[in-house]
Amino acid sequence: MSPRPYVLAETNWKAVQQTDYQVAVLPWGATEAHNYHMPYATDNYQCDYIAAEACRQAWEQGVKAVALPTIPFGVNTGQLDIKLDLNLNPSTQLIILRDLIDVVQRAGISRFVVLNGHGGNDFKQMLRELQPQFPDVFLCLINWFKVEPRDGYFQHPGDHADEMETSVMMHIQPDLVLDLSEAGSGAFKTLKLEGFRKGWAWAQREWSKATVDTGTGNPAEATADKGRRYLEAVTQHVGRFLVELSRHSVDELYG
Ligand SMILES: [Zn+2]
């Protein structure tokens, strides 16, 4: 396999030195249990794939986008009692993010996208705090799992190790997904007060109280083909976003 020039981990100083990158993409995942049937690094495999594929599409359209390595640890403060879910606190993430944006600014790259792949990560407030510290880099955030509506692709709702995530993994890492007969049903409970149910009140979910098998959402109807179709839509949207973002000057983004 030859190095992909849009994946920093694969490319080299010879190429990097000569390339005037327009946008850097930092994928950010998590390492955590995903029902019984999927690997702990599920979010990281997904982030790796989507970042690389979106940058490839941007590259093909003449935009020099570079996918940085996926940060494999996310906020898992609601899963501290789930064995080997690897928690980073939000304040730790802020420090990591600041150091990496500093590198990007020094490299003269004027656009930076956090590509988030884990529901417990919340970078919005961090980017609010960091933007004034990095006037030469436009900071923005994509939660990839919100890019494309799930209707029309999947039967069962959910948000963790569900039909969507399982289908995606069956497409990109089929050898790491156990037979679906091994999977739990992904049955879950929600906080029962009206405010929580309607969404105007929020509290962290305690995973061991909310779930049985760590999954939320039934994966039984997942297929690799559903995952392929969904990822095609997601990566096209993200790829197009990178192209648009790079073709506008930061001052032209309103209108
Ligand atoms: Zn996940």
Automatic annotation (TrEMBL):
Keyword field: Hydrolase, Metal-binding, Zinc
GO molecular function: hydrolase activity, acting on carbon-nitrogen (but not peptide) bonds, in linear amides; metal ion binding
Domain of life: Bacteria
One BP term from GO: riboflavin biosynthetic process
The keyword Signal belongs to this UniProt entry's keyword annotation: no
Cofactor: Zn(2+)
Protein family membership: Belongs to the creatininase superfamily.
Protein name: Creatinine amidohydrolase
Organism of provenance: Catalinimonas alkaloidigena
